[in-house]
Design a protein that fits this description.
With about 190 residues, the chain is an all-alpha fold. Helices cover about 80% and strands about 0% of the residues. It has one domain. The model has no long low-confidence stretch (mean pLDDT about 90).
Length: about 190
């Protein structure tokens, strides 16, 4: 049980680390188009992200595959940028048909990329562990709890901005997404493979 709790804490700190805010940015971009009325959709997306994230960790831990760390470090901000850009489909939803299926596929793929970004460190942690399932499940639990926390914060911000301040939804999504893009651009530049 102690080991399981250790990995839950590791999952929590992995996502909620303000020093490595890429996870927070991605989840914020993912949640921006949603409100408390559509909380189930964003929770499904976050859970799919967690499953994909942990799948890439498992693939690494069991030495099924490895990834180029430099490329992954660049692809992580690319996923944030693409998610924020995808939000504009919600801004112009009258002219675009937004299917949840496409959103799910993209989120799953992006989850795999984010998981590979942490896989080398996680693999090193698990090198001495015989039981690899318990740490993976603990880590996944920590990730999911922290992601739900971030999503609730973003949904609360949406409630204040849309419900109390009466900002138009399309303006809120556009401004929030542009802000996320602006924060992401330096990450893209810093990690660009040369």
């Amino acid at each position: 049980m102690q080991e399981f709790l250790f990995y839950i804490k590791l999952g929590l700190s992995h996502v909620l680390d303000f020093g490595a805010y890429d996870h927070i940015l991605f989840l914020s971009a993912l949640a921006v188009p949603f409100t408390f009325k559509s909380w189930k959709k964003v929770l499904v997306l976050a859970t799919i992200f967690t499953i994909a994230h942990c799948t890439s960790l498992a693939l690494s831990v069991y030495e099924v595959t490895t990834a180029d760390v430099g490329l992954i470090e660049f692809l992580i901000p690319v996923t944030i940028l693409l998610t924020a850009l995808f939000n504009f489909a919600y801004v112009f939803k009258e002219s675009l048909d937004i299917g949840l299926f496409l959103h799910i596929l993209a989120t799953a793929f992006f989850g795999l990329i984010h998981g590979f970004g942490f896989s080398n460190y996680f693999k090193m942690l698990m090198a001495e562990e015989e039981d690899k399932i318990t740490p993976l499940l603990g880590f996944a639990t920590g990730i999911e709890l922290s992601q739900v926390t971030i999503i609730l914060v973003v949904l609360a911000i949406a409630y204040v901005v849309l419900g109390l301040l009466k900002v138009k939804r399309s303006i809120y999504i556009a401004v929030a997404s542009i802000l996320i893009i602006a924060i992401t651009i330096p990450l893209l530049i810093a990690t660009f493979p040369i």
